[in-house]
Amino acid sequence: MNIEDFYTPIANGISFSRDQASGFAKNIADDFNPIHDIDAKRFCVPGDLLFSIALSKFGLYNTMQVTFSGMVNAETPLQFNHIEAGKLDIVDANEKVYLTVEHQGQQSNNQAAISKLIEQYVGFSGKTFPHILVPLWKSKGVMVNPDRPMVIYQSMTINMTSLDFSSPSIEATTPEIDVNGKRGNVVLRFNFKDGDRKIGTGEKHMILSGLKDYDQTAIDDLITFYNQRKIDLSG
User: Fold this and answer.
1) Who contacts 94 (Cβ-Cβ below 8 Å, separation ≥6)?
2) pLDDT-based confidence at 235, cuts 50/70/90?
3) Which of 31, 72, 90, 191 could form a disulfide with 126 if both were Cys (CB 3.0 to 4.6 A apart)?
4) What is the pLDDT of residues 39-77, one digit of tens each?
5) Measured between alpha carbons, how far is residue 98 from residues 69, 139, 157, 202 in Å?
């Protein structure tokens, strides 16, 4: 994967076309959320694309705390702001923050290894639905509204015990969901591995809103719809 295929360099920053952002979602992240469709009315650049670019441009650190703050529209010019040591913000011309990365520890700029790590991470992230979320919903007897599924990525933490790796992979561990009325908080946990060697851990936090009672028929229909979209849009 060449991350430079999915953004356009501009003066002091970057921007995205709908083709670039949608192509990343579908071809790299295996994410067929309608919000990333080229013709979507409320089009949104994938948050994982912003994170991937930050990782590629500024390196991988032992500890990284990533906060997703806003939805990026296509063609929005973005800049990288180093407000203080150990912190990077991705902002627009009005200083609105869309992504913050706080980092500590040693740094790796091994682009070949970082590119492989990005591919593994976004592939894992794109499989959140239905593989991880549906069993969690069922365990609590809730689900999102199929007509208006509100799933928002909030933050992510990465802790790498080794920055020296060549064939990274990601292994899902025990996820967690906390439900409070129509709102839910999900924690996805995962390990980074290099072959059989564990090289780090990660957590991704998500917010669910508009929850309703779990309905297996509605879930089955939603999964069928989602899988058919993948077939139609991949072809």
Assistant:
1) none
2) low
3) 31
4) 988 899 999 999 999 999 999 999 999 999 988 988 899
5) 5, 32, 17, 21
Instruction: Please answer whether residues 137 and 177 qualify as being in contact, where contact means their C-beta atoms are separated by less than 8 angstroms.
Output: yes
d(CA 116, CA 130): 24
- Residue 16: both structure tokens together: 């995205």
Beta bridge partners of 8: 15
Which of 3, 6, 92 minimizes the C-alpha distance to 45? 6
pTM of the predicted model, to two decimals? 0.88
Report pLDDT digits (tens) over 171-184: 999 999 999 999 99
d(CA 178, CA 186): 7
Find where tokens 């072809």 sit.
Answer: 235
The pair of structure tokens assigned to 32 is 């067929």
The DSSP 8-state label assigned to residue 3 in this structure reads G
Cis peptide before 130 (omega within 30 of 0): yes
- Single-letter amino acid code for the residue at 49: L
